[in-house]
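Late entry, evening session. Most of the bench is empty. Finally got around to the prediction I had been postponing all week. Sequence below, unchanged from the version circulated by S.P.
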Amino acid sequence: MPRGQKNKHRHRLKNKKRNQEKGHPEDESQEKGHHKRDDSQDHKKAQDSEAVEEKPHCSSHSVPGETLEKLPTSETSSDAEWPSCVPSPVTVCEDDLEFDNGIYCHCGGNSLYSEYRTCQENPCKNCLDMYVAFVEQYVLYKFKMKQLIARKDLINVIEPKYQNRYNEILKRAFENIEIVFAVSVIEIDSTNHFYDLVSKLKLPNKGRVCPGRGLPKTGLLMTILAMIFMKGNSASEEDIWKFLNYMQVYPGRKHFIYREPRKLITQDFVKLKYLERKQIPSSDPPCYRFQWGPKAYTETTKMKVLEFMAKGSGIEPSTFSVQYAEALREEHQKAKVRKRYPILAPKPCPEYSHHHVQKVMTPQ
């Protein structure tokens, strides 16, 4: 018997003897019941302490939000096409990767995670979603660190059993990156199969705006341009921040993608002439309005901005009937100008041609 239990047992015997001497005998059955419950509780505590000591520790530093609680398993699936699989805690031990919070189903011994459960033979939708997220985060990390994105590394991110869905996974990951960051993932080296991110606007440092490492800021700029267009080609600074608050972007608060967003919007984008910031007359305290800058008119169109916003919302651009009609008029006017002055027609960019996109999506 452990020392703690011996002390408790000895203490109970002393109390029993003292009570008997005072004429208050205790019920033996009740004493035995208490003894059994105490023994079971002590045994359970000992097992819990042993389990904690035996739990493996990650050798790398922890990623915030990396450990997710285990959900109860379900033997039935409401979706007949995508069989369910057993979720398990996610513990990321890679220094070079940062993963968003989410419940992922693990279906192989990939190095991106340390614990996994095997799902059924057919492809699991949760697993495909997981690998799409892995590819997105790997591509963005490599871009952030200014490192080459190799196809072989993207394939290694995906567990072998799902590599026959390679095209589907990459296509979804690249589309998600395009929707959020307004950049295209293209193959820049067809011999060695290296990829890179190309901004839809010619922002400095491949969309990072400032020198150094970081993620593209093009998505934020396109979002602001779209909002200005939706507001009648002019939007107050107050309305812009109200809208950006829904995206959890706040003035004066550091953002993990946009850093200090107030400086980025009111200084950097204005200095680069993508935005114009003008004071509203007779406003006290001073209030400002934003409009498109000359660089925005040169490098994009209202139709492209509308399509970007509509794609991110999952709707058709024609849903915004007034803005869509205005964007069509602008497209027709520009077509007339290009027809009259062919020298002003923009040169086609092979990076965005349909043939090139198909080539990017097909592994060789």
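Two things to note before I forget:
The chain has a mean pLDDT of 74.
Residues 42 and 170 are 53 Å apart (CA to CA).
Will write this up properly tomorrow.
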